[in-house]
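Journal club prep — side note

Before the paper discussion, L.F. wants everyone to see what a predicted structure for a comparable chain looks like in token form. Sequence:
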Amino acid sequence: MRPSLKTFSLLAVPALTTLALTVACGGSSGSSSPAPVATGSASIILTDAPSDQWSAVEVVVTKITLRSKADHAKEVVAFEGATAKINLVDLDSVGELLATAQLPVGTYDALRVTIDPASVNLVKADGTTVPAGQVHVNGASVLVALETDLVVTTTGSNAVQIDFDLGHPLFLVQLPNGDWVLNLQVKHRPNPNGMMGMGQMMFRHRRGTIASVGASSFVLHTDSGNDLTVNVGAGAWFFDADTKTVGSFAGLAAGKNALVSLRMQSDGSLWAVRVWYGVNALPGWTPEGHVVGVDRVNNKLLVSTNASVPRAIAIDADTTFTFRTDQTLGTGTATLADVWVGFKVQVDVKDPLQVPMHAKSVNIQRAVDGGAIKVADATQFTYTHPVAGDRVHAYANPFTWWYLGFPGVTSTSSGAFAAACAGSGDVRVRGVSDLVWNSGTSAWDANNAIFLPVALPKGTISTSYNGGQLGFTFTNSAAATQNITVSLNTTVGMQPAVLEVANQSGVITVTAIPESAWATKLVAPAVTRVAVVPKPDGTYAAYSVVVFSGF
């Protein structure tokens, strides 16, 4: 089995109508039916955040439940079954509409997500697959407390977002013997905008068969085994895959295959944006994915697919490029110079059955850059890449930076950011940024920067923990011994994650070490892995500390 390493979210959307769930009674012939239970309709949507470490992380979600606030022993099933395999790598900036469900009216304060660990397929960015025998998963189910309650009513809308924190260095820990331990790091991210932003969310295309067709809607039976009611308005676009021509709503019929691009209204209703349909099975492709290669010689984009096999998309002289739909980058092959690996794109192809596909338009949904920060000053900074070279980004207005895991503690000082970018040896400051297109300079500016923990090589504690800090020694990439002092924040809510990974007769256990035991557990010369983040004063703070025993 292999680990699931991505962030994804769940949004629950109670509908505006009142539904009843009748509970049948057995027993005496004189029994009467109880009062119906009022319910609201909910949509389960998965999203995640980008990663430059993995090209595919496929997983099957088997169950999602919500815990009743009034009775913690009661969990209401929102989804149960087996989804089609989802490549979480492709779900940043778009949502995977997993299912719809009827939930009893009430208040829920926690959510549980369960996956099938045997279904997980993990492929690194270099294309190598992690062998199943080298991975140990600590549980395939996780209960996440909601920071704000989900209140399901017969009217109104709610949004609940939880993040599987791939960037957390404890999500996946490599053991001294080369094996990996997966520890689910999950948190609730409150959505202050509620459902107001749902109309702007882009959803991953859903594939399935048409169950029925109404006067202005149809029901799609998805490949996950769920039924979605899709409304059709005047702006919907149809393509008949059998005739390879533009189609129409009238061409839909029960039993036909369909691939549907969706948008959601603030009331939770789903509306068709694009619909591809045909009698024959549609090819396994999706118009959105990550750019995994840019071929400027042959004018092609290599875009990841839901089958984990990248697809070449030909760029023509009339291919238009936009950023978030409404900002134009340019037209034609020359615009490929402004697109690089890691971008999330939505491609509108001229003919989905043509090989190779030719792009009519490319909409960049999310532009990102990241890696080692080579240099920074008060006006700009540079990400350096081993193959692509240096990329310089001016600070956008506004520009914000923070440390991974603490988005509520931010700074807008570019000077402080530049001061924190100093590093030495293998402690090279790393970050990731969302980019925005600057039409005036025709360049990508950095809207933000998030300092990522620098996971240092395995080493030993050289100075035992005392007074909020410890000494750590490791052999760096230059084969030289490097010593650093690492501070550990003892403030509740700001403490680093400190774990002990123990091997007892082949049984691996992972135990959290409380702050009260740091002085007895973090002692020289324990074999340790440390992840640190830089501080503007030139020192390093621990993001995580993992101590190994029994290896």
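L.F.'s comment for the group: The CA atoms of residues 28 and 34 lie 14 Å apart. Keep this in mind when we get to the figures.
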